[in-house]
Design brief:
This protein is mostly helical. Among the domains are: about 10-165, no CATH class; about 350-515, Tetratricopeptide repeat domain (Serine Threonine Protein Phosphatase 5, Tetratricopeptide repeat), CATH 1.25.40.10. It has 16 helices and no strands. The protein has helices at about 10-25, 35-55, 60-80, 85-105, 145-315, 320-330, 335-350, 375-385, 390-400, 405-420, 420-435, 440-455, 455-470, 475-485, 490-505, 510-515. The longest helix has about 170 residues, at about 145-315. The chain starts with 7 loop residues before the first helix and ends in a 6-residue tail after the last helix.
Length: about 525
């Protein structure tokens, strides 16, 4: 252990020797962050540069002057408040020395170098923070007394710092020696304990082997029980899964039963509406027959009156009587007009439930179906091109070979609607709707035909049924909007809703309908 009571002077000499060695040999240092250390490094490089220049080693002196100048530049940049006058003076000195050496190396004459003097430290600065400087080109021992005093003060501060570090190091060394002794004692105790444990282990090895055998047997038994428990858990999980699937199937069954009941109810409602429409069609047919009879009677009366008027005109003697009879005939003749209107209305209200044999036939010959196209696709193409007559003739010809094809029947109804044969289309489509009560497109087409034929209430019910079956029918929403907007009972709120849905599905705008639904606000 190092003796801490050595004379103080010896310790100072050792520190001075270490500092001198540090000045002689400068190893590579890490980047410095303390301004005092940076100033010390700059001063050391400056002294070594002066010594190298006095010895004639100009390259070495040039490198050391540059290193010192870099340190002073770092101080001026990072610590601008750190002795700015001294730092600027020494940097200028380094610049002058560097320029002189470069000129001498290029063959010029050396300048008279002024001696490096120490600038007075700023007020309030500590003397030990200032690094000593010497005159360039002279030996350090010939420096002025003031520089030597500054250097001694700096060395004393460094000695004090090193003594503090040395005291701390000695304290740490004492603590390390104490810990080493304790560690050696612990090692001895551990060796003794290990020896005792080895002796005891030799006697208890047999007992330990027996316990290990028992433990292995119990482990095997535990593993067997664990496997049984895992198998039981898997069985319980399988049972729970099966119960969950059974409950799910029961729920699905209940939902299907409810849907079946709902569908049955809707089917019953559709059949009831179909029966009602059929009865209304029969009543309309009866009204049409009565209107035709009244029309024939009115025509006969009109013909008789015309004959009587012609006979009176041939007899000028009875001019007054003829005029009176003409007036009578004129009065009787208008009475035939309501009968004609009734007949025309009866024809417009012709039943949509008429038998298929009485449907409207095409007036043009059918077109041949091109190869690669089905009849339905080709007829739809003709409808898109606006050739409605040819489309009707072609689909009627195609249905001769496919009487049960629902798609062709629906297209035939669309073709008749395009030709404004609304009553004939309704008569055919009502049977198609009976046979396909869940087809939304059939109901939508039937509703359009009834709407064109003037059966507005039935058309509204049929269109609502189509929307209930499929909400993605823009034409159906548009037709409902027209019924709500123009036909009693008028409901503009429902009309706006249906029109908005039709527009949302991409249907083109209707300015006339929008004018009714969104009237301009009066200011």
């Amino acid at each position: 252990m190092k003796n801490t009571n050595a004379p103080h002077m010896n310790r100072i000499l050792v520190l001075l020797l270490g500092l001198a060695c540090g000045l002689a040999v400068r190893p590579a240092r890490a980047a410095l962050t303390d301004p005092a250390q940076i100033q010390t490094e700059a001063y050391v490089n400056l002294v070594q540069a002066d010594q190298s220049l006095d010895a004639g080693r100009m390259d070495e002196a040039l490198s050391q002057y540059r290193a010192a100048r870099n340190y002073y530049l770092q101080l001026g940049k990072d610590f601008p408040g750190w002795e700015p006058r001294v730092i600027q003076y020494r940097k200028t000195y380094c610049d002058n020395q560097i320029a002189d050496i470069e000129r001498r190396k290029s063959g010029g004459q050396p300048d008279e170098r002024p001696g490096l003097r120490t600038e007075p430290p700023p007020a309030g600065s500590q003397p030990q923070d200032s690094a000593p400087v010497v005159a360039a080109g002279r030996a350090p021992e010939r420096a002025p007394e003031a520089d030597r005093a500054v250097e001694i003060n700096y060395l004393k501060s460094r000695i004090a710092s090193l003594e503090a570090e040395l005291a701390e190091f000695e304290s740490l060394q004492d603590e390390a020696e104490t810990l080493t002794a304790q560690n050696n004692q612990l090692r001895q105790d551990i060796d003794a304990a290990n020896q005792k444990l080895g002796e005891k282990a030799n006697g208890e090895q047999a007992v330990l082997d027996g316990l290990r055998a028992d433990l292995k047997a119990k482990d095997d038994q535990i593993q067997s029980l664990q496997q049984q428990i895992d198998a039981k858990k898997q069985l319980d999980q399988a049972l729970n899964d099966m119960e969950g699937k059974v409950n799910e199937l029961r729920d699905q069954n209940d939902r299907l039963n409810k849907e079946i009941k709902t569908l049955d109810q809707e089917l019953d409602d559709a059949e009831a509406r179909a029966d009602k429409a059929e009865r209304q069609a029969k009543q309309a047919e009866a009204r049409q027959k009565d209107a035709e009879q009244d029309l024939q009677k009115a025509r006969a009366d009109r013909d008789g009156a015309e004959k009587e008027l012609a006979a009176v005109q041939r007899k000028p003697i009875f001019e007054k009587s003829a005029n009176e009879k003409a007036k009578t005939v004129a009065k009787a003749a208008p009475e035939a007009k309501p009968a004609e209107k009734a007949a025309e209305k009866a024809k417009a209200e012709s039943t949509p439930a008429a038998a298929p044999a009485s449907r409207f036939l095409a007036t043009v010959p059918p077109k041949p179906i091109p190869d690669g196209l089905s009849a339905a696709d080709y007829v739809r193409q003709l409808l898109q091109e606006g050739d409605n007559d040819s489309a009707l003739a072609t689909v009627q010809n195609a249905r001769k070979a496919a009487r049960t094809d629902m798609n062709l029947a629906l297209i035939e109804g669309i073709a008749m609607i395009r030709l404004q044969r609304y009553s004939d289309a309704a008569a055919m489509l009502i049977d198609l709707a009976k046979n396909n009560p869940r087809n939304a497109e059939v109901h939508a087409t039937l509703g359009a035909a009834m709407m064109g034929a003037g059966f507005h209430a039935e058309a509204r019910e049929t269109l609502l049924m189509a929307v209930k079956l499929d909400k993605n029918l823009p034409e159906c929403h548009y037709n409902l909007a027209q019924l709500y907007a123009f036909i009693d009972p008028i409901d503009l709120k429902l009309a706006r809703k249906s029109y908005k849905q039709a527009r949302d599905f991409g249907l083109a705008a209707d300015p006339q309908l929008e004018k009714i639904l969104n009237p301009p606000v009066k200011r």
